[in-house]
């Protein structure tokens, strides 16, 4: 039975005829050759979110980002002119990795006045210019102006730092399009208290996006998280979204959120009742500007029972905006056709009191309990997909964003192959 | 180590831990009986502790209050095994892990 209305087309999926309704082939998640094509066609030419401006608040603050999927490492730094720039993390002399501590493969962060190569001490300023060459006189007609760090396109949207390895890519704001525009103005800058998580997962990167792009699984996979009575009720209802929006290559789902706060406290666990917090975050809204009214793209259906919006910015960045006034990000960084690094970050308005901090702690702990259940289905799925015993899978209307993701990746791969002739 | 009103929780001092990884590790290393005993003793103090902590800015807590907050973080950590799972690990989580790499320090 339908609780929330569907669009006039009869279903969310049929509203976008290009998506079709046929079963979806998952060869794209197991074929090593396809993965190689994705690296070129998707990751080398789309905007990738690699951090937030709060990670580099002051001149000389920097961090590195390992991007195995495009075989590089980047260093992101705030220059003397306050600009944030991104460079390939490679020394122009003979290719040593420029910024790293004890282990070259590990990401680092810090503050410096300049970057000095560990190998022969070439130095670069915060704007990437080569400023010092050891025994410069030994070189042949070396003009330092020609040997600055190799820059990467770097643009900021709402405080999120994006890079693009394609020098000809269209501007970030244009790439994020209507979906990005609809979120602009949300008070991300107030939410600077961060819980960060990381795991290496034995599945194709798209499978974990699949898992977070639908809530169809929630009443089933997570049923033990609710009180018994509540779990049975949720399972009986199933899941229906309030709204879906697809603006290729991106997509979003808007979902119900009756638990923040619950109508009846007996629906939730004892600790949630005391701390007034849970999966949907602390029930009491933080005291900041910008949550009322919300930007038009957040809770687009303007539904009273709204709980969370989950935006998927292609290819590998998800942004979840929760009704009680906090947000969550997911990133999926492929390392092989059947492996990726998963990162999650929860962002809250800084707690003023221990009570507020405890409410955030419960939200963070709860997040991890759910995510562990989500993550564990993935390796099992990957190994069975690899059997090719079944190759095509029926996706329902609440799985529209998965259908869209696999199609958009496929379109990129095809287009790139055609362009290459 | 705790504010005077919470003296009866002193015997659970081993649950005053600085970081989530330490609290998570202690959860996995504890028996259900140990966690139940801690939960039963600490839970009735959760609301009073939150009320007590309301009297201080969270970024400048005196030592005893800071310990109390860390102890209550551990109560949050064991609440899932006690209230929901009836076991230390998340059921159906198999070999999956998710390491906390960044948390707001108090
Ligand atoms: S490789 Fe960097 S100075 Fe030689
Ligand atoms: Fe889930």
Automatic annotation (TrEMBL), chain A:
Record-linked InterPro entries: Rieske_2Fe-2S, Rieske_2Fe-2S_sf, Ring_hydroxy_dOase_asu_C_dom, Rng_hydr_dOase-A
Domain Rieske: 47-163
Pfam families (alphabetical): Rieske, Ring_hydroxyl_A
Cofactors named for this entry: Fe cation
Any one Gene Ontology molecular-function term assigned to this protein's record: dioxygenase activity
Keywords recorded for this protein, A-Z: 2Fe-2S, Dioxygenase, Iron, Iron-sulfur, Metal-binding, Oxidoreductase
The name this protein goes by in its record: Aromatic ring-hydroxylating dioxygenase subunit alpha
Organism this protein belongs to: Actinomadura craniellae
Automatic annotation (TrEMBL), chain B:
Domain of life, source organism: Bacteria
Name of this chain's protein: Uncharacterized protein
Organism: Actinomadura craniellae
């Amino acid at each position: 039975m339908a609780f929330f209305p569907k669009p006039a087309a009869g279903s969310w999926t049929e509203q976008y005829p290009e998506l079709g309704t046929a079963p979806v082939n998952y060869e794209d998640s197991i074929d090593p050759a396809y993965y190689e094509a994705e690296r070129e066609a998707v990751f080398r030419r789309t905007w990738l979110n690699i951090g937030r401006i709060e990670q580099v608040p002051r001149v000389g603050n920097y961090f590195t980002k390992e991007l195995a999927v495009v075989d590089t490492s980047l260093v992101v730094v705030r220059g003397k002119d306050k600009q944030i720039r991104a460079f390939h993390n490679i020394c122009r002399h003979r290719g040593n990795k420029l910024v790293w501590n004890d282990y070259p493969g590990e990401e680092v962060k810090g503050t410096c006045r300049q970057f000095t190569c560990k190998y022969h001490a070439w130095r670069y300023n915060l704007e990437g210019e080569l400023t010092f060459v050891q025994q410069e006189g030994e070189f042949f007609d070396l003009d330092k102006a020609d040997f600055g760090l190799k820059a990467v396109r770097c643009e900021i949207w709402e405080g999120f730092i994006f890079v693009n390895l394609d020098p000809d890519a269209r501007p970030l704001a244009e790439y994020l399009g209507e979906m990005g525009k609809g979120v602009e103005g949300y008070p991300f800058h107030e939410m600077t208290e961060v819980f960060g998580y990381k795991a290496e997962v034995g599945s194709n990167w798209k499978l974990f996006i699949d898992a977070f792009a639908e809530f169809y699984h929630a009443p089933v996979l997570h049923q033990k998280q609710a009180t018994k009575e509540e779990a049975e009720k949720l399972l009986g209802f199933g899941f229906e979204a309030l709204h879906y929006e697809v603006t290729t290559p991106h997509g979003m789902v808007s979902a119900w959120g009756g638990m923040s706060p619950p109508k009846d406290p007996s629906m939730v666990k004892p600790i949630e009742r005391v701390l007034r917090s849970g999966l949907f975050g602390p029930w009491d809204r933080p005291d900041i500007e910008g949550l009322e009214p919300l930007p038009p793209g957040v809770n687009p259906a303007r539904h009273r029972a709204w709980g969370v919006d989950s935006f998927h910015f292609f290819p590998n960045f998800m942004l979840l905006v929760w009704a009680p006034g906090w947000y969550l990000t997911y990133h999926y960084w492929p390392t092989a056709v059947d492996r990726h690094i998963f990162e999650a970050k929860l962002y809250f308005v800084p707690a003023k009191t221990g009570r507020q901090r405890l409410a955030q702690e419960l939200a963070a702990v709860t997040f991890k309990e759910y995510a562990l259940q989500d993550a564990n289905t993935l390796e099992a799925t990957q190994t069975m997909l690899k059997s090719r015993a079944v190759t095509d899978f029926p996706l329902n209307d609440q799985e529209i964003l998965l259908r869209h993701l696999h199609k958009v990746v496929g379109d990129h791969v095809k287009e790139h192959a055609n362009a290459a002739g | 180590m705790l504010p005077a009103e919470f003296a009866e929780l002193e015997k659970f001092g081993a649950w005053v831990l600085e970081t989530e990884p330490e609290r998570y590790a202690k959860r996995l290393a504890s028996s259900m009986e140990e966690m139940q005993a801690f939960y039963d003793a600490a839970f009735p103090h959760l609301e009073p502790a939150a009320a007590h902590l309301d009297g201080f800015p969270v970024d400048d807590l005196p030592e005893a209050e800071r310990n109390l907050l860390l102890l209550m973080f551990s109560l949050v950590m064991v609440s899932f095994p006690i209230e929901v799972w009836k076991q230390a690990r998340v059921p159906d989580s198999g070999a999956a892990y998710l390491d906390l790499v960044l948390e707001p320090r108090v």
